[in-house]
């Protein structure tokens, strides 16, 4: 997990946040033990509710030892405490990981045939499902409809990851990394709302810095770490959006529930962003595309000359991705957000240069970072000024990049058509 994610959140009453971890009967149940450990070590009060099938994969003693609580699986256990009602009523968050096709179907149809199903019916807090199943099951029309139903009701159903499944199978359906599920859940808890305001929305985020190769070894690049773009993608997923993240040369784990497309060059970034932006409600260009590229790339490593001479490198200008998607929108009501890393120079201050850039690019919002002295790059924190096309300027004080991501999405949501 990145340092952008908040590790502990207090409930409104100042108590430890009460999390219900539902575990369904899939082979990925063993990964839920790591998720449980993350919650308990960060100070959350966790009640584990495994299904009978889940206990075939990981036994009750494991859940009891990691949570510090006895494990209840039936609606008639401790009946005087009415667990089938109380557990859901008292929760600040319910997360089901893994969520099997069967669990999603039962939740979508409101069945109450075991303790976990009852908890899902009585919970009035945010509910997160982290699915894990074979690709064919995830793509079956019944599962697709069930997921759509749950999302329409306000649940957050994260997209499963792609990779190795049970046996020799590979494909989409793998449980996202437990650290990333934890980060998303903490983000949901921090917002303290059951309404995912980006539910049903499709957003595109770019992150990282592009590379323009000189030869097979060397390239022109920049210092962008991708942390802010990944924070934006993670925040959008926590708010219920379908997220496509176009990542340029980023060494970070894929955020849970986000489709990640990896690229290297500005041309590749441009192609993927333009394709993904078709039909998107919002595009946030947090990546740092290289402005220039060499006009030719050597097939072999460029060697030092014995006489001390150095090669001349001719550069050509790269396409301006932000300008293109702002001026040629596939949807006229989409919201486009750009980033400006400025230092100020003899021609103007940071804000003066940024305002000129906003007008030139044609985007709706421009997030301005003063990067004098290398500030912001690689740091878990950020501060910015958000400039709007209507003339507004919003100062965002120093804080985590995750916090800035939510401020940006707040302003995007305010501009989306209802």
Describe the model.
There is one protein chain. The chain has about 425 residues and is α/β, with parallel strands linked by helices. It folds into two domains: about 20-190, Rossmann fold (3-Layer(aba) Sandwich), CATH 3.40.50.1950; about 200-415, CoaB-like (Rossmann fold, 3-Layer(aba) Sandwich), CATH 3.40.50.10300. It has 13 helices and 19 strands. The protein has helices at about 30-40, 60-65, 85-90, 100-110, 115-120, 135-140, 140-150, 180-190, 225-240, 265-275, 320-325, 350-360, 400-415; strands at about 20-25, 45-50, 95-100, 125-130, 155, 160-165, 170-175, 200-210, 210-215, 220, 240-250, 260-265, 280-285, 290-295, 315, 335-340, 365-370, 380-390, 395-400. The strands form five sheets. Strands 12-11-8-13-16-17-18-19 form an eight-stranded mixed sheet, with helices on both faces. Strands 2-1-3-4-5 form a five-stranded parallel sheet, sandwiched between helices. Strands 6-7 form a two-stranded antiparallel ribbon. Strand 6 (about 160-165) and strand 7 form a beta hairpin. The relative contact order is 0.10. Residues about 1-15 have low confidence and may be disordered. One of its GO terms (biological process) is pantothenate catabolic process.
């Amino acid at each position: 997990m990145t340092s952008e994610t908040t590790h502990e959140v207090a409930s409104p009453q100042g108590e430890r946040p009460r999390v219900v971890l539902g575990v369904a009967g899939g082979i990925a149940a063993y990964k839920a033990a790591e998720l449980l450990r993350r919650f308990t070590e960060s100070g959350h009060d966790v009640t584990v509710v495994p299904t009978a099938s889940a206990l075939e994969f990981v036994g009750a003693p494991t859940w009891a030892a990691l949570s510090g609580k006895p494990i209840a699986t039936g609606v008639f256990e401790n009946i005087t405490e009415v667990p089938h009602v109380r557990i859901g009523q008292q929760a600040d968050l319910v997360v089901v990981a893994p969520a099997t096709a069967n669990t999603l179907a039962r939740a979508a149809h409101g069945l109450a045939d075991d303790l976990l199903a009852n908890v899902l019916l009585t919970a009035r807090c945010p509910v997160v499902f982290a699915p894990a199943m074979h690709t064919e099951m995830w793509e079956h029309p019944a599962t697709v409809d069930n997921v759509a139903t749950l999302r329409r009701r306000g649940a957050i159903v994260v997209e499963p990851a792609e990779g190795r499944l049970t046996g020799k199978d590979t494909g989409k359906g793998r449980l996202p990394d437990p650290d990333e599920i934890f980060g998303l859940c903490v983000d949901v808890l921090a917002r303290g709302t059951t309404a995912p305001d980006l539910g049903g929305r499709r957003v595109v985020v770019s992150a990282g810095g592009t590379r323009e190769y000189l030869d097979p070894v060397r390239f022109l690049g920049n210092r962008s770490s991708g942390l802010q773009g990944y924070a934006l993608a993670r925040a959008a997923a926590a708010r219920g959006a379908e997220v496509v993240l176009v990542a340029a040369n980023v060494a970070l784990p894929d955020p849970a529930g986000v489709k990640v497309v990896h690229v290297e060059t500005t041309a590749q970034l441009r192609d993927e962003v333009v394709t993904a932006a078709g039909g998107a409600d919002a595009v946030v260009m947090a990546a740092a595309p290289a402005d220039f590229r060499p006009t030719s790339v050597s097939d072999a490593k460029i060697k030092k000359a014995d006489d001390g001479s150095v090669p001349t490198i001719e550069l050509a200008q790269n396409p301006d991705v932000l300008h293109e998607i702002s001026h040629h929108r596939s949807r006229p009501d989409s919201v486009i957000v750009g980033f400006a890393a400025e230092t100020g120079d003899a021609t103007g201050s940071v804000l003066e240069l940024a305002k000129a850039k906003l007008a030139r690019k044609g985007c709706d919002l421009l997030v301005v970072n003063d990067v004098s002295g290398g500030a912001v790059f690689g740091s878990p924190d950020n501060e910015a000024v958000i400039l709007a096309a209507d003339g507004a300027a919003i100062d965002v004080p120093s804080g985590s990049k995750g916090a800035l991501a939510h401020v940006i999405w707040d302003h995007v949501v305010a501009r989306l058509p209802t």
